[in-house]
Amino acid sequence: xxxxxxxxxxxKGDILIIIFFLFFAFFLPKKKGEKVIIxxxxxNDFVYPLNQDREIIVKGKLGxxxxxxxxxxxxxxxSPCPLKICENKGWISKKGDxxxxxxxxxxxxxxxxxxxxxxx
Amino acid sequence: MRSLNRIAFLSVFTAAxxxxxxxxxxxxxxxPGIRLGLANIFILLALIFFGLKEALLIGILKSIIxxxxxxxxxxxxxxxxxxxxxxxxxxxxxxxxxxxxxSLLGISIAGAEAHIMIQLFIAASIFLPGASFxxxxxIYVLSSIITGSVTGFITYLIYSKTGRRYGLCVD
Lengths: 120, 171
Known about the structure:
The complex is a heterodimer.
Chain A: H1 12-26, E1 35-40, E2 44-49, E3 54-59, E4 64-70, E5 73-78, H2 85-88, E6 98-101, E7 106-111
Chain B: H1 3-26, H2 39-49, H3 52-69, H4 76-98, H5 104-127, H6 137-162
Helix pairs in contact in B: 1-2, 1-3, 2-3, 2-4, 2-6, 3-4, 4-5, 5-6
């Protein structure tokens, strides 16, 4: 009587849906980034190419932060914020990665060639 | 079903989902935003026993009264909660109606995924445009597989134990 119920756990569809979402979670490949977008206090965006090495001084709300682009990777090298979370995030290089410094109001993110439908 | 019986069951379901929602919100989790989603048990039961309208009613009441209790009405948390509830109820209803070979486990997982997807989408499009929430989704997708199967299994236990006894069962 119980075995006839169509809601009894683990039918074909369940396994399919679990496999689908596992696949979605693990094998979504991260693409290489193309450009670095630095925004301060949500107002102005600075865009830099990722393949040219440079050092940038960004004026945040607390003070000047030093951002380094080197060998296709970005990091915040020096920041006046108290907890230094943004410095400890280290190098980022893949499309969609980001460094956020909340006290200094700086968001650094990496975009690829095309914008996503979601981030558009 | 007799309407008095129906009203009684609907109110018990609503009360149960509200209390589970509130109790669950009091526990902190390692990653913000991840909850077991126990309130979904009663929304899913209402979908099976009654229908879309009743399940949506329970879901919306759960979000509104729950956030009144938690003092989060009309905050982002409330908007996440109510949009996730409505979308996941629709998705679960579609799967139940389509008669695809899904058990309660799969239906619940699909509901949990829909719940987290719409929340990530709203977070990415309204509250923090520009930040790529899409790329932190693997953590949430994985955890909602687990939470979805847990709630789905609990739902099946309740369904199989009580459904026939109270004359609610559909098949």
